Amino acid sequence: MQTLPVSSSIPLPGDADGTAGWDAINQALSGLYGGQAARHYGTASSWTLGGEDPLDGISVYWAALPRPHWHYVSYGLSELYGKDSDDAALSGFGFELTFRLAAMEGEDPASAPPVWPMNLMQNLARYVFGSGNAFQAGHSLNANGPISLDRPTCLRHVVFMPDPQLEPRDTPNGHLQFLQVVGVADEEADAMLRWSPDAVMHVLQPRMPLWITDLGRASLLDDPELAARVHAGSMAEGSSTGALYVTTLDWSGGDGQTVELVMGATEAGNLATLLPLRLPFGRTLELVSSERSWLFETGLENRALLGPQHARFQLSPGSLGILDNLMDVAGSTCALPDGTLVIRLKPAAGRSGQPPSLLRD
Question: Residues near 236 by Cβ (< 8 Å), separated by ≥ 6?
Answer without folding.
Answer: none
